[in-house]
Design a protein that fits this description.
It is a single chain. The protein is mostly helical. Helices cover 62% and strands 1% of the residues. A two-stranded antiparallel sheet has the order 1-2. A hairpin with a 2-residue loop joins strand 1 (28-29) and strand 2. Helix 3 (42-52) runs parallel beside helix 7 (107-121), helix 6 (84-100) crosses helix 9 and helix 9 packs antiparallel against helix 10.
Length: 295
């Protein structure tokens, strides 16, 4: 039997594989194919249609109506609370009550879609992020094959996401935090699709915070811009990078021989790339990494 590895797949072919499998993964939720759940829940189907039309707020309304008033009250408090961890626990408890009571067995599926709706409302598209990684792989491979590769330069794995990210506003950063909190509230109900989505959202969050340092808006982070990242903020990012790597590792695979998806591999590689930077502390290494262009 022929064995394929990431290295043996040509970049354009891999991009096609990534698109096909990403669609499959992101349509999987809570142990069943998403299209199977459509028959069980008009809310899931209707919300998904609204997301496809770009109507994230309408999708949220549909999902919250299905999840009930108690869940909705908790969810609506997310924008005003400073303790998302406690709210996450409360939402997990409410989800379990919906499942155990038999009122809404498909609650985890609806919550996963709600996380996507919240992210979309703030300009985050997981497909765009994953495809950006695929584009980066294609560009890197072509550059390495070029005689001019020693003089070429491209953004690092965080700054390359800037073009597909929204404005790095406090509202968008908080909105993405809420989407991540919703995925975290799935607890043991979290499935492979949710793990992959979480890895992408975490990476988007890291990149969005990094984008906020780009004060001149040129799409790169200079050494002067990077030093504005405080040690405390750097530690938050380092923790998120570790969480993203863990979620990516747990997200299963996209290739036939069990290799992790290229985007998942690149997310996992962030940590080792930061570790390889100069600097006496991890915070210093992170600053050096985000100010670095690949050459």
């Amino acid at each position: 039997m022929t064995t394929f590895t990431i290295a043996s797949i040509k970049p354009n072919h891999f991009k096609c594989i990534l698109i096909i499998n990403l669609v499959s993964l992101l349509l999987l939720s809570c142990g069943t194919n998403f299209f199977e759940s459509v028959d069980k829940s008009d809310a899931a189907a209707d919300a998904t249609i609204q997301l496809e039309k770009g109507n994230a707020s309408k999708a949220e309304d549909i999902l919250l109506n299905a999840l009930g008033s108690d869940y909705t009250k908790l969810y609506e408090s997310a924008s005003s609370t400073s303790d998302l961890d406690s709210l996450k626990d409360d939402l997990t408890t409410e989800m379990r009550q919906l499942i155990d009571s038999g009122d809404l067995k498909e609650a985890p599926n609806l919550i996963s879609i709600l996380a996507s709706a919240r992210a979309q409302r703030h300009g985050i598209d997981p497909f765009e992020i994953a495809l950006k990684f695929a584009d980066s792989s294609t560009s890197s491979s072509q550059s390495s094959d070029s005689a001019d590769s020693t003089t070429s330069s491209s953004p690092n794995e965080l700054t390359m996401l800037f073009p597909v990210l929204p404005e790095a506003s406090g509202d968008n950063i908080t909105g993405l935090d809420i989407a991540l909190m919703l995925l975290g509230s799935l607890a043991e109900e979290k499935q492979v699709a949710d793990q992959y989505k979480e890895a992408l959202f975490l990476t988007a969050s890291i990149a969005l915070i990094t984008k906020s340092l780009d004060t001149d808006g040129d799409g790169t982070i200079t050494a002067l811009e990077s030093i504005t990242l405080s040690d405390a903020a750097a530690q938050v990012l380092l923790n998120q990078i570790a969480s993203a790597a863990s979620a990516a590792a747990d997200s299963g695979d996209l290739t036939s021989d069990g290799e992790s998806s290229l985007s998942a591999q690149q997310i996992q590689a962030l940590q080792s790339q930061i570790d390889a930077q100069d600097g006496g502390t991890q915070e210093e290494k992170l600053r050096n990494f985000i100010a670095q262009n690949k050459s």
